Amino acid sequence: MNNTEKGKLTAGVDIGGTDIKLVLLDNRGEVVAQSKIDTDARRGPDQALERLMEAEKSLLTSRGIKQQDLRALGIGTAGPLDIARGIVVQAPNLPGWEGTPITEILTRGLEIPVFLENDANLAAFGEHRLGAGQGSDSVICLTLGTGIGGGIIIDGEIFSGVLGAGAEPGHITIDKGGAICACGNRGCLEAMASAAAVARMAVDAVKEGRGKIISELAGGSADKVDAETVHKAALKGDADAVQILEKAGRSLGVGIANMINIFAPRTVVVGGGLMKAGHFILEPAKEEALRRALKAFTQGVSIVPAMLGSSAGAIGAACYAGHKIKGL
Amino acid sequence: MNNTEKGKLTAGVDIGGTDIKLVLLDNRGEVVAQSKIDTDARRGPDQALERLMEAEKSLLTSRGIKQQDLRALGIGTAGPLDIARGIVVQAPNLPGWEGTPITEILTRGLEIPVFLENDANLAAFGEHRLGAGQGSDSVICLTLGTGIGGGIIIDGEIFSGVLGAGAEPGHITIDKGGAICACGNRGCLEAMASAAAVARMAVDAVKEGRGKIISELAGGSADKVDAETVHKAALKGDADAVQILEKAGRSLGVGIANMINIFAPRTVVVGGGLMKAGHFILEPAKEEALRRALKAFTQGVSIVPAMLGSSAGAIGAACYAGHKIKGL
Fold first, then answer.
1. How many domains does chain B have?
2. CB-based contact A168 B261, cutoff 8 Å
3. Which tens digits make up the pLDDT trace of A217-229?
4. What is the ipTM of this complex?
5. CATH code: domain of residue B227
6. Are residues B158 and B302 in the same domain?
7. Within this chain, do residues B171 and B87 fall inside the same structural domain, yes or no?
8. Yes or no, beta carbons of B296 and A161 under 8 Å apart
9. Do A292 and A321 sit in the same domain of this protein?
């Protein structure tokens, strides 16, 4: 550590159902260290937060950084949250965490300011500050996983939504009579453009005797087909696989057009596991979005792949902590 | 005028393609006077703004109010606007107004602070402060006319959007293969739940030999069918008319659900000419919206008819001027 960096570090934490990611960020936006521990959600929040604080201290020690060089910590988890009070209100992936005063526990344990935010919003903030949305003050970030999450940055600030849960672009209806969604409705973006949606379309194709290469890659068993199988088959030239990814991409494009017509962002960042299929998804999505959105809103809009990968949430949390203490 | 009201008046102006509405609001939120002049858009902005200032002065004089009792003026027009500079950027209904520094001209002429905003946002602000959204900090306002406009209030503030054009909820895709919209796309909310959409469905019905009462009311001429004809036919018990309004209402409900899933508002206010058809539209809309939106977001949401009618924009502009000068 040289002198200019002293006291200029922030930490970022992303609490997921499976693991807790932790990063240390210096004042130039470089990740100086990162680690990961099991969430072990069954054992409850107190035990997990205790282990998190230990992990954070040993991460500092391992790099020869003193505790007092850490200025603040940002922490993200799935909402709904009570951001003002630093409390998890509902936690579908973290049973028993409801009502946990995360901010209070960590502030007391680490003796630094701690800021809680929605994980999808923090990933968007990370991409805005250090990733694919750099240089853009208004960023929509969509994450294509089993579901579709989203974060929104307006004028350089996180749009937390009225309930602090952020927006749920995955559950915008884009096709009112369309496929059934996990939420119970028809035609949600998530039901038509997520990794689960791609897998479902591929399983249907295999059962109908289409998607020969998809079927081969899955050893002839439709149950083993997932979004990755479809991507691999597309790379090997399976026309049905290409078509499934294009269909998901076009649906994604409708969802992006809707977000453009509401927020008029400069940059739309698309990340998540399904984006491993890259241009098979993103090119049709771009085409559909730019064709559908209002022309007044599409001038100068970029629709680009995410850059920060699975660390986006933790990196965004560290950026956000730095952003917040400047305003303290 | 008693003493407490002196210097506590604000003016609100709503510039439309046909007329310019003007209201004076006292500090208790009462409209003390209002008037209307022709926009006479062909003759350009300078002439119209000159006549507006004269109208404002004679409105004051007619009520025995001194110019110095007026504290500020809010003014609304269709976007996109450059709000910071007080300039109209694009003006589809006001040819020749592009680039007009409205705020500067009026500030110089009236010698009071002037605030420009998007007209749909000001209507929403009016409903939030003095109409159907009173007591709610977060309000979505949808206006069902020939098209569908919208305004968004978050935490008591107007959400202007990145380009100052506000959001365009009328052009959210809710049915990607649905009816063709004036914007060129398919399945926009506007193409399925506006007065024009209702008229189109009714014309189709009449041409197919359905909607007997609609046809009678239009004197057998499908060209004369408009949304009002459909409403009148519904009141007379025409089952096809009722079904058309219900269909539009259900589409509206999908759009409302989308806005709820993005903004989690407390109140959704629905106004505009088509709302003369009241419960024929609003009841199916409510049912569909509450069924579709995420349960975490619908608790305590009210979906209600607008209260301020066609003056909502001007009243909202006057409220907004009062709101802004408190922050000056």
1. 2
2. yes
3. 999 898 899 999 9
4. 0.86
5. 3.30.420.40
6. yes
7. no
8. no
9. no
